[in-house]
Each structure stands twice: as structure tokens, then as C-alpha cells.
Design a protein that fits this description.
alpha/beta, 5-stranded parallel sheet, 8 helices, 14% strand
């Protein structure tokens, strides 16, 4: 099974994924961003798109990597990855379904002001214009399709531990 943690930057996906992994037996964290980083390392570089998710190989490589890891290890993959383009989510989720990989899709949501504050106050990555530019696309995706496609966990007033506990309980229950 895959527990996909979606949401925009600042929602708590990375922190929560590590905590969820500790609460779900036989689980591992697989960050699909690493697939994008591999594609970014190709030289000469792939055509510039501004985001590795726009490269057509990224989505099927995420599917293939996740399913092969699950074939090898079994258990659960906890995948923290923002996907805000509906077409991309459909491609990934249908690809996993073709391989009979069940997916529990969660969106970590927080109010725009809270997200902005988290991004601007991030002591690890620092304030990031790249991360801030995804606040409006996230809000648009949430309004138009994303929240209807997932189990929404509002993290506005939750600690990462509380968020992880809610997700783990939903998956186990």
C-alpha cells in the first residue's frame, strides 16, 4: 500500500511522513522528489520546464519505482509529494492501480496565512520564493479537484505528531 501525503510546501509533509512511518508497521518513506533529482542530474540537462514534474518521464518513473520497491519489500510506502496538477495525479494514481497498488491519498491542508508563516519562518530551508509561489496553485487545486480526491487533514492547529497519529489511525482503521 502507498500512503501518499500531498499538500503544498509548508503543510508538513516531510516531517509528518517520518512520524507516520514510525506508527505504521513495516513501512518506509519514499520521497518521489528523489526521482526528480535523478532526472535533474542528467547531462546535458533535459529541456527546462521549471519543475521536474512537467517532464513526461517523472510520473511513470515514480509509479515504476514505487511498485518495484513494494514488490521487493512489501509493506507500506509513505510518500510525501506535492502533486497539484490533476492530470499528473491521474497518471500516477492510474499507473499504480494498473499494478494493483492500493493508495490512501491524504492532503495536509493549512490556511494560506499559516502556510506563508511556516515557509517564511523555516529555520532549515529558510524563506523560499520557490515554495511561496505554490500557495496559489495549491489553493486553486484544493478548490477545483484535490480535496475531492483525498482525505483532507487540516494541519492549521495540529502538531506534526497529531497529524501523523490521525493518518496512521485512518490507515490502520
Amino acid at each position: 500500500m502507498i500512503v501518499w501525503l500531498n499538500g503544498t510546501h509548508g503543510a508538513g509533509k516531510t516531517t509528518t511522513s517520518a512520524l507516520v512511518q514510525q506508527l505504521i508497521p513495516d513501512s518506509r518513506v519514499f520521497d518521489a522528489e528523489k526521482v526528480g533529482e535523478t532526472l535533474m542530474d542528467i547531462t546535458p540537462g533535459l529541456p527546462w520546464t521549471g519543475n521536474f514534474q512537467h517532464w513526461p518521464p517523472w510520473r511513470p518513473l515514480v509509479v515504476e519505482t514505487a511498485r518495484r520497491v513494494l514488490d521487493y519489500t512489501g509493506g507500506t510506502l509513505v510518500m510525501p509529494m506535492t502533486v497539484l496538477v490533476e492530470e499528473y495525479w491521474r497518471e500516477i494514481s492510474s499507473g499504480l492501480a494498473e499494478h494493483a497498488v492500493p493508495v490512501r491519498h491524504f492532503v495536509l491542508h493549512a490556511d494560506q496565512d499559516v502556510l506563508r508563516g511556516r515557509i517564511e519562518g523555516d529555520t532549515v530551508m529558510g524563506p523560499s520564493p520557490f515554495r511561496l509561489q505554490y500557495l496559489e496553485p495549491y489553493a486553486e487545486a484544493a478548490r477545483t479537484w484535490l480535496h475531492a480526491e483525498a482525505e483532507v487533514v487540516d494541519t492549521t492547529h495540529l502538531t506534526p505528531e497529531q497529524t501523523a497519529a490521525r493518518i496512521a489511525e485512518a490507515v490502520k482503521g
